[in-house]
Every structure is written in C-alpha cells, then in structure tokens.
Amino acid sequence: MSQKHLKEAFISNLNGTSLLEILLGLSLPPLCLLCRGLLLILYHLRYGKPLSSRRYSLLLDFLVLVSPLLFSCTVLSPIMFFMPTIIAAFCAGIFSKIYSQRKHETRVPFRQIVKDFQKAYLDPEYIPAITVFRVYVNVLTSIGILAVDFPQYPRRYAKAETYGTGVMDLGVGAFIFGNALVCPEVRQKSCVTQPKFSNLARQFFSIWPLIFLGFGRLLSVKSIEYHEHTSEYGVHWNFFFTLAFVRLAASLLLAIFPKNKSWIVAINLAVLYQLILNTTSLKTFILHGSDGRDTRVGFLNANREGLLSLFGYLAIYMASVQAGLWLLKRRNSVKGWIEAARFLLLTVLVLFVFLHVSQAYADPVSRRMANLSYCVWVVAHCLTFFICFVATDLALVFTKLLVKGSSVPCCWNVVKPPNTGTKRETEAVPVRTEGKLSHICLISAINKNQLLFFLLANVMTGTVNILIDTIHSKTAFTLCILHLYMFFNCLIMYILHAKNIVLKFW
Question: N or C end: fewer C-beta atoms under 10 angstroms in the chain?
C-alpha cells in the first residue's frame, strides 16, 4: 500500500468520541486563558508593573494558551477527564496567592469586593469572549489538521466517517458559527438604514479569497497526489468552498427575511432538510451515491457530501447570526452579563434535551450530512464554549479588583458608570480600540489576521506531511514537530501584529 493510501486509511472509518469528553475538552481553553490572566495579575502584584517584554509575553502566551492543548490531544489524552481539574486547581492556587499577598493598605473585606464586583461597569463596546472564541476555534482547528496525521492523536478525536461526534467534526461547525458571529449583518447597527441587498453585494466581493483558496487547495492536492478523505466533502469540494457559499447564501436569506428572525429560518432549514433526508432517498444518495455503490461519476455524485451539507451549515450560520445579534445588545455591567450567561446556559440545556430527542427519533449526529442532530450539537457546544469564556472574563475582572492597576489583554476593563440618560438597549460593536497591552497579546495578534493564520496552518500541514512520515513518528518527535509548527504560525502572527500589518485583500 502506498504512503498516500496508508494516510487515507489512517483517517477513515472512525466513530468519534463521547459528548462528555468533548465538553471537558472545551473547558481547557477557558481554563488556560484564566491561568494566563492570573499569572499576569500575580506578576503585577509582585513587581508593581505589567509584563512589558514582548519576548517573554509571547513565550508566556504560547506556553500557557497553546502548549497545554497540544499535550492534551496527544500524550495527555488518556487522562483528559482529569485535565480540567488539574488546571483549575493550579488556577485556584494562583488566585489564593494573589488574595493572600495583597498589600495591607489596599486590603478590602471580601464581602465588599463581591459587592464592588456586582456593581462594576464594563466596556459595552467590546466583548472579549467573541474575539477569544473565534481565535481559539482557529487555533484548535490548526492543531487538529496536523495532529490527526500522527499516531499520538487519538483516533476518536478525528472526524467520524458517517455518524459520530469527533472533536474535528465540531471544529468545522464551530468555524461556521464563529464567522457568523461577526458577519456584516450582525455588526450593522439597527439605527443605520441600508439598501436590502447591500450586504449581499459586499459579501459577493468579500468571498473571492475563499473561492481562490478553494481552487488553490484543489489544484495543489490533485497535482501532488496529497492524501484526502473523499467522504468529507467529495472529490473536488473543500471547506473553503463551503464557507464561501454559506456566507453568500446567508446574506441572500438575511436580505429577504428580517435578521432578528434568523433563528426561525435556521430551525426551518434544519428541520426541513432532516425531513427530506428521512422521507426521500436523499440520505442513501449522500452515503452511497446514485447507484448505491458509492459512485463518483458526475459532478453531483463526486461532491455530494460537500454540496448537500451546505443546508446544514447554512442553518448553523443563521442560528449564529441570531446569537450574535443577542450578544451585541449593550450590556454594560457585570450583573447584565451574569444574567446573559444564565440565559445562555438555559438555552444550552434546552438544546441538549432537543439533541437527545433528535438522536433518538430522527438521526444520530452526522457531520457528513450536516443533519439536524449535527446542527443542534454544534450550536449547543459553541454556546457552551462561549459561556466558559464569559465566565473566565468575569473571574479575571473580579481578580483585577483585588490588585489595583493590574490589567490583562483581551479581557474586560472596569469603566466608570454611564450617564443615566444613556440608552441601554442600543447595540455594541465588537471592535475594541487597541489598548496599550494589545501589542503583547497573542490572541490579538491571531485575531488581526485570522484567515492568514488558517491558510498558513494549511500550507504548513501540507509541507510537514510531504516531508515527514507522520504515521510512524515517535512521541518525542511528534511533540517537537507540533510545537514548532504552532510556534512558527503564532510567531508570524505576532510579528505582523507588532508591525501593525493586516493582510486583507478585499
């Protein structure tokens, strides 16, 4: 068997993992973010100033925000169920040290700190959880696309063949969800009136890089006979095409239907698509082709998974638009965000109940078809991920109240109470004026060039696979390669950010 066929077999016919393991895995990035923030606050407490060295800042960010994720999906995967507890215990230890080492003159009773925290006002123009969510989806995706080719990456985390919930199955849907959170329709203020199809025209011109990248990936994969999993998207289709067409179709739907009713469009799309799958031969066609023997003759047969899964991904996108509109409502207090987190948590619980019903009576989760269960699963997990980041930000806001003058990049800052005459029901735009600390934050660096980061990760993944026999790599070598790969990608983003360069061609 050739190397190409060996690698294709290595990532095929898999069944995914449990919902619980994925949920536990989702708690790791917020805990890493909390750990990084607490370490920075502790540094400020000890030295009386923030960490200003760019070199040490990058090193700290990489070692705390990225490296634990690399270990958790490789050598530490057997103890994944204990990883959140270990990191949480470490965070608790740092917090305890901060609380006990506060200067005597600044010590305030704990109850008073809690009261101050509950009354605190936050910058309503910036929601750090949205930025961090999108960046971490990109980082986790970049880790997964290379790590999956090494034997140290558990097969249960890879994409499931037909039915199942793998970590990488969630990554695809989360990428769609994250894109919709900041789409033009969400960011557009309600008080600004624009022609109905203006966003559609803008989207039409903004997706050309994705189309270009899609064709670039297609040509490069075919020309060098790079290994590919055909049942993911088909023979010619790939994720760049999916993202481009979903964005374009969503803009068309949002030009026709009111954007504040996008959740209704999402439900109708997902339910109708599932009904068609269950009542017609469409499901058989997607899984086995028009002849029932997995034929790939003809464009539709060759790319049936990529083309027909667009309906499911479009439903996820529309659901995320609704979530984005709700999240960007102006909330300028800690109390407001605690109430928002509670509402989101209730929504997630309802979605998990619906997921159970959908899997029992409709169809199990299938990324290959992007069916109803898959859509519900993705939205539920993305909202859970977002809630974790909101909780992390609030925890850091509370800790910063203990140490006056301390600050954490990509985290809420406590601001002065707004004027009583300010309207509270207006919308906030998730764009922050870059602060003094933004230049030493890896998250800000990746956020500035997200598409470039994803493209660079894809190019580096291909390069590594061409040069290295990944399937037979030893553990130490695998960890070394994965760390070098991620550090190089992060370093490029960091340098571009330090020079204030944004590579955007549209």
Answer: N
